[in-house]
Amino acid sequence: MLTFTDKSQCCGCTACASICPKQAITMKPDGLGFLYPVINRSKCIECGLCEDVCAFNSHYEKSDFSVSEVYAVRHKNISEIETSRSGAVFIALSDWILEKGGIVYGVGYTDHFRAIHKRATTKQQRDEFKGSKYVQSDLNTVFVQIKNDLKQGLYVLFSGTPCQTSGLQSYLKKLRVNVEKLFVIDLVCHGVPAPYIWRDYLEYVERKRKKKVLSINFRDKSKCGWTSHKESFTFSDKTVVCSTYSDLFCKP
Ligand SMILES: Cc1cc2nc3c(=O)[nH]c(=O)nc-3n(C[C@H](O)[C@H](O)[C@H](O)COP(=O)(O)OP(=O)(O)OC[C@H]3O[C@@H](n4cnc5c(N)ncnc54)[C@H](O)[C@@H]3O)c2cc1C
User: Does any ligand 1 atom lie closer than 6 A to the CB of residue 132?
Assistant: First the structure.
């Protein structure tokens, strides 16, 4: 049975919850909103799959690459670069997958800007994933959905943080799923900020401005500059402002 006392040994990737044959594991938020597995002991059959699949295990195979290859890439279309946080590689790769009739998984929002991984089959749905959301995303049942898509022979692109892609690959490997049509993007990541700090920051901004936020653009190149690390907010009265409180949430 999965046990850990050190929170730094779990990134909330959901591999353990997804692989459990008895659905004995649910992901629950801690005091900061980070998701951790909680085991229902009465359902657990001690099969050990949750421990085996964990990418934080010492026996986890870290890389299949014998030699790394490095390319510097950016999109040919400048408007794609302007609306992406970096060079819009995600848009180029996901266009290719969608044009092959494949599925794209990336991060969008639910409720009031809670970051969550979602499934897209069209470019319109995929466009929601464009742009970094600087907060831990909830992977919910995405690993199981990816397994099902691959079993149907579909091309799949999953984009997420490196620990999320490690968890996904470990999960699929344990279940011996054919991953020939799976492509993963693990973005350069220093770590994910806490969901509840993000939620409280948003509440603070709305209280200060006395209006509701309608949309958010982290590191908005057009409003806040290409080198700044600030988010812009569109408010209910249609005003768009580059945040003056950014330092409260994330300091570059
Ligand atoms: C949590 C986080 C930490 C980062 N840390 C660094 C860093 O230390 N150094 C650095 O140079 N760049 C960092 N980045 C930026 C990131 O590497 C770029 O966004 C990335 O290069 C994507 O560039 P793009 O232009 O191709 O795509 P974009 O359109 O800018 O990015 C969209 C992609 O990011 C994914 N994504 C968005 N938010 C999340 C999230 N919360 N969790 C998982 N996936 C997400 C989407 O699914 C989509 O595939 C970070 C981004 C995030 C989300």
Answer: yes
